[in-house]
Design a protein that fits this description.
Layout: H1 2-12, E1 23-35, E2 54-65, E3 70-86, E4 91-108, E5 122-141, E6 147-151, E7 163-177, E8 182-193, E9 210-222, E10 238-240, H2 243-250, H3 254-261, H4 263-269, E11 282-286, E12 290-291, E13 297-304, E14 310-317, E15 322-324, E16 327-329, E17 333-337, E18 340-345, E19 353-362, E20 368-380, E21 385-396
Length: 399
């Protein structure tokens, strides 16, 4: 019968694929720099207003966070770049239009210094990827602006006849959380190519031309889809971990944390506790029947409280080496400390049955039958205390 309950729970627990979660979109703008044959060498004296030309660039990036540290993103840059230099025979200048697309990975370097489940307020990350440049460059004599030649003016294989050139990107970025969903990003990345004609001029050194894009961006974090509520209740929801919730958790008092670490003793002693009108509140918990490796899974709890109004405190003791991922539960405060989990409702939701879900994972799972203990109490508005408890078990089939 227990197996049947578990199977029913698995069918009802329709969780949206993680592919649709943890996305981010950024709008960015900044300066585009050029390094090549026609760039002014530092220290040389030339009759130009600035030691190096720069032009405006702007674009869009869409990121999927695969793990807390690794991300994959697509990026688009549209802009211009330019340069000028006396090469001995003539004084040249050029200007170029650029449309660049790339597929890149990002890695959070600050993940070395914090808990991997801990959400950041600032982070330093690396950027690496490959892409395609579509560019058109016009070469002139300087300062007369006499046109010499163009590349990518209709004869290329790229967009609108531009030159199509592969590139690789390498850079650094810095994120700052402005709020729960919005971020400010500062990035600089070098775009290397296998061409010496990004400037419409082929030098004699054999060195390839390089671009640099330094930008400021505004990002927004979101999920394409959220988990659907289980059929046991249309009101239970699971949402992703949030910056705001993590700030709340960091502010927990030492007294609360101490209470969480004593859950096991409370669960043992709870057998001797007789609650007032305890038959009015009961609870049930669903978990998958089998768990493989270190995959995460959903723990679903339903509390049947009837028409009782007040507040609730629910404590969960997970198996050794299992932890709850940071997350939010609607209308509740969710606190996770190692294998101890505490959930607080103040006030309780209005519905007779309160459903909640949270995600659990182990980095060092132990094969065998594992148990999750739930104990809770509801304190009604008129001071009556209702205790409840339940146990859920699953089989860890592999490490």
């Amino acid at each position: 019968m227990v197996s049947s309950i578990h199977l029913m729970a698995q069918k009802q627990d329709t969780t949206v694929s993680s592919f649709w979660k943890n996305w981010r979109i950024d709008l960015h703008s900044g300066a585009m720099f050029y390094y090549g044959d026609l760039v002014v060498i530092k220290g040389e004296s030339y009759p130009i207003p600035y030691p190096r030309d720069w032009r405006l660039g702007y674009g869009l990036s869409l990121t999927k966070q695969i793990t807390p540290a690794w991300g994959v993103r697509g990026r688009v840059i549209n802009g211009e770049y330019a340069g000028r230099r006396d090469v001995g025979i003539k004084y040249y200048s050029f200007s170029s239009d650029l449309f660049q697309t790339s597929l890149e990975t990002t890695y959070d370097f600050t993940s070395f210094f914090r808990n991997k489940k801990e959400e950041y307020t600032t982070r330093l990350y690396g950027i690496a990827g490959i892409g395609l440049m579509n560019y058109k460059a016009d070469l002139y004599e300087y300062p007369s602006e006499i046109f010499i030649r163009s590349v990518g003016d209709g004869e290329g294989s790229g967009i609108n006849g531009r030159v199509l050139e592969g590139d690789f990107s390498l850079g650094l970025g810095f994120d700052i959380h402005l709020s729960e969903k919005f971020l400010l990003s500062l990035e600089t990345a070098y775009l290397g190519s296998n061409s010496d004609q990004l400037d419409a001029y082929e030098g004699t050194t054999g060195k390839k031309d390089v671009l640099q894009y330094t930008s400021v961006g505004l990002g927004y974090s979101f999920n394409f889809k959220n988990d659907k509520p289980s059929s046991a209740s249309d009101n239970g929801k699971e949402t992703s971990a949030s910056w705001k919730q993590r700030q709340l958790q960091e502010g927990l008092s030492s007294e609360q944390k101490a209470q969480e670490t004593t859950q096991k003793e409370e669960m043992i002693s709870s057998k001797d506790v007789v609650a007032k009108e305890a038959n009015k509140v009961d609870a049930i918990c669903w978990v998958p029947e089998q768990v493989k490796g270190n995959e995460s899974f959903i723990v679903s709890i339903e509390i049947n409280k009837g028409e009782i109004k007040g507040r609730a405190e629910i404590k969960i003791l997970l198996p050794m080496e299992y932890t709850a991922l940071d997350q939010e539960i609607e209308e509740a405060v969710f606190v996770a400390n190692s294998r101890n989990v505490a959930i607080y409702y103040n006030p309780l939701p209005e519905m007779d049955k309160v459903s909640l879900k949270f995600r659990v994972k182990s980095d060092r799972p132990q094969i065998g039958t594992q148990s999750i203990y739930i104990i809770g109490k509801i304190t009604s508005n008129d001071g009556i205390v209702y205790n409840f408890s339940t146990v859920a078990r699953f089989n860890q089939v592999s490490k």
